[in-house]
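User: Show me sequence and structure for the first protein, then do the same for the second.

Assistant: Starting with the first protein.
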Amino acid sequence: MVATRFLPVSFNSCNVTIGPIYTKEESEQLGYTVKQDGEHFRRVVPSPLPMKMVDHQFLAIQRLTDSNCVVICAGGGGIPVVRDPNTGKYKGIEAVIDKDRAAAMVGSALNAQGLLILTDVTAVAKDFGKPSQQWIKSASPSALKKLTGHFPAGSMGPKVESAIDFVEKSGGWAAIGSLNEAEEIMAGEAGTVVYSDTPDDCIEYYE
C-alpha cells in the first residue's frame, strides 16, 4: 500500500467538553449546555461536520503539497467559522471541529490518494471489548456501513465515518490504526484498511 499523500490525525470525540468542572447546582446557573462527566458537570459545544476550508488557507495548503512539502494543518480540527450572509465576512462560532472529519475533508479536496487515521488502538473492531470481539483487517465502505452500530459516536464512530467518506469521494484508500504501528499500517501489515476497489460487503478479519 503506497501513497504520495496522507493525513495522520489523532482521535477526537463528537461531544466535546471544554473548560472547568462544576457541581450540579453551579451548572444550572451557567446558561450553557452542560453534560455530566463523572461526578461533575462540564460545558459542551457542538461538533458540526466541516464543509470546506477558508479559500485562501486551502490554496496555501494546495500549493505546498504540490511542491512536495509536508503540511501540518487543521490542527485540533481547525477553528470553526461561518460566513455572515449580511456582510459576507467570516465569523467564529462556538463549536469544535472533529479532527478526523477535517482530515477527510482536506484530503478529498486535495485529491489525496490515501487517508491515515492514527489513534490509540490496534485497529477497528466489531464488538469491541466483548468476548465476540473481532479485529477488522480490511473492508469495503458498504460493509462498514452495515456495522455502524458497533462504533461508538464518541470514539471510533467518527473515524470510521471519515474513512468511508474519504474513500467514497476520492476513490482512494483509508487506514485506521495505532500511532505506534504507522509503518506497519502503511505496509499493509496492521490496522484496518478501507479500499474503494473491493467488492461490495467485502470484509476481512484478523485471525
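Switching to the second protein now.
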Amino acid sequence: MKKEGCYVLVLPSIHHILKVEKGAKSRSIPMELIPTPRQISSDCGMAVEVHRDNLDRLLSMVEQSKVPEWKLYCREGGDYRPVSG
C-alpha cells in the first residue's frame, strides 16, 4: 500500500494483529500487514496499514473487539504523525 493517505495501526501483540487481520478479512475491509516502521518503534514487529477510506470501518471493528492500547499514526511522506483518538 504505502501511499499517501494511509494510516498505521500499532497493536500490543502479534495475537492482536492476527485478530484484527481476521476480523478485517471477514468484513472485507482492505488492509495490509507491514513491518512496524522504525520511525514509530525500534522493536521488531508487525503493524496494520489501512487507507483513510477504510479507516473508520477498521477502527470501529478494533473498538468492538476490545483490543487494548492501540496507537494510530498518519503517514505523511516518510514521516508518521501520531493521531489522537
